[in-house]
Amino acid sequence: MKTHIILLTAFVCIALFQSCNSETNSQKDPENQDVEKMSTQSLVERGEYLVLLSGCDHCHTPKKMTDQGPVPDMDRWLMGYPSGDPLPEITKEALGPGKWVLFNGDLTAAVGPWGVSFSANLTPSESGIGNWSYENFKKSMTEGKHKGMEGTRMVLPPMPWQSLGIIKEDDLKAIYEYLKTINPIENVVPPPIPPDGI
C-alpha cells in the first residue's frame, strides 16, 4: 500500500512539473504565439484593417480629385508614385531647414531638405514588394532600410518608419500578409532626387 502511495505521489509531481513546464514554453514568445494562432484569412483581414487605419493610402495611392477633395484611386491602390507622371515645378526658395515640405497634387511625392522622395509601390508585383521576404519587409518598416536590405540607403521622409519601429510582430505580419493579397500593379517608382538635383 505504501508503495502505491509513493508511486501515486511521484506521478502527480511529474504531471504537475510537466504541466508547469509546458505552460512556460507556450508563454515564451506571446507575440509570435498570437500570429501562429491566427488563420491566414484572419491575418489578412487584420492587415487590411491596419493598412486602412494607418492611412498607408494617403501617400502610397494616387488620388482622384472629387467635389469633396482628393480620394484614393482604387484602380491604383497602393501602387506608389505613378512613374509616368511628371513632377510639378519645384521652387527651391521654399525648401530648406525651417522652411516648407511640399507634396505633389496626389500626395505620392514629397520634397524637402532631403530632396524629392517618391512613395513606394506596396503591391505584390515584381516592381513592388512581390519578391520581398517577410524579413525584408520587417527591416524596411522597423529599421528604415530601403527594400529591407543591409547596405542600402535609408527610407526617406515622409515615411514614418521610426514610429513603426514599435509595431507588434503580429500586426506587422498581418500587414505583410494583406499586402501580398492585393492587386499587383507593375509600376517602377523612380529613385529619389538628391537636394542638389532639384
Looking at this protein, list some descriptive labels.
3-stranded antiparallel β-sheet, 7 helices, two-stranded antiparallel sheet, single chain, 39% helix, 198 residues, mainly alpha
Short recap of the structure:
This protein has 198 residues and is mostly helical. It is built from 7 helices and 5 strands; from the N terminus they run H-H-H-H-E-E-E-E-E-H-H-H.
What does this structure look like?
The chain has 198 residues and is mainly alpha-helical. It has one domain (37-84, 94-190). The protein is 39% helix and 9% strand. It is built from 7 helices and 5 strands. The chain has helices at residues 2-26, 30-37, 40-54, 56-60, 134-143, 161-164, 169-179, and strands at 63-66, 69-72, 102-103, 109-112, 115-118. The strands form 2 sheets. It has a 3-stranded antiparallel β-sheet, with no helix packed on it. Strands 1-2 form a two-stranded antiparallel ribbon. Helix 2 (30-37) runs parallel beside helix 7 and helix 3 (40-54) packs across helix 7 (169-179). It is globular, with a radius of gyration of 24 Å. It starts with a helix and ends in a 19-residue tail after the last helix.
Largest sheet: 3 strands, antiparallel
Helix content: 25-40%
Total individual domains: 1
Number of helices: 7
Number of E-state strands: 5
Rg of Cα set: 24 Å
Helix and strand succession? HHHHEEEEEHHH
Low-confidence stretches: 3-17, 22-26
Query: Structural class given helices, strands, pairing?
Result: mainly alpha
Terminus-to-terminus distance: 92 Å
